[in-house]
Amino acid sequence: MGILAGAAALAVSGFASAGFVGMDVQSSVIEGKTVFQVFAQFDSANDVVLSVFGVANIPNGGFFNADFAGGSWAPQFTQNAATDSFVTIGGVPGFANSSQADPAWGAPGFTQPGIPNGAGWFNSNPPNLQGKVNAVTLKTLIAQFSFEGGAAGITTFTSPITVSFNQGLGTPTTFGQSSFTVPAPGAIALLGLAGLAGRRRRS
After folding, report:
1. pTM, to two decimals
2. Bridge partner list, 53
3. Interval 145-163 mean pLDDT
4. Residue 88: which of 52, 139, 42 has the closest Cα?
């Protein structure tokens, strides 16, 4: 069972629309893995994420991957959505997920240990509205970074990101810029407390 450990919304910069609020990182300890979910946050239930791109500074490896490809960021190959590392434009990990790698990933595509600088991913079938925000939270999941073990195995990084979105078919596409940090500020201390509480329950 995941234990919510922290969240951080970072400032939006540049030409972001009023609809795009920024990025939110949520942390959990699940089945012995430390998991960080990265969401794009909006202020309207009508917003739909189409793509994200321009990420950088993400470590080349060190993440927990347990997928059918033997190490891939593809949401289609995820065996355990709770603990695997993957990228997505909303939706649910599995074969029906329509997220695809953009050309900046190079020939290996999603099947590589890290995410290349400048890379992104997109919904290859936007009419399905897979990237639409959750009606309650107004967020869309765009990535999950999982580490095996406790805080000692986590590499901290901060990545810029550009998000493209609209409000459904026939509406104009808008771009917003922000950044996200893994782990979110303060998350390590809270995750440590969560792990300690788990050990006490088991003893």
Report:
1. 0.85
2. 162
3. 88
4. 52
Q: Please give the tally of structural domains in the chain.
A: 1
- For the chain, the straight-line distance linking the first and the last C-alpha, in angstroms and rounded, comes to 17
Q: Please, what's the b/e burial string for 7-25 (b: 16 or more CB within 10 A of its CB; e: otherwise)?
A: bbebebeeebbebbbbbbb
Q: Which long-range contacts (CB under 8 A, 24 or more apart) does 150-155 make?
A: 150/34, 150/191, 150/192, 150/195, 151/34, 151/188, 151/191, 151/192, 153/34, 153/62, 154/34, 154/182, 154/183, 154/188, 155/59, 155/62
Spatial distance between the Cα atoms of 110 and 63, rounded to a whole number of angstroms: 14
* Inside any domain, residue 1: no
Residues of the chain with pLDDT > 70, as a percent, come to 81
Query: Residue 130 contacts by C-beta under 8 Å, 6 or more apart in sequence?
Result: 89, 90, 91, 97, 98, 99, 123
Domain housing 154: 6-202
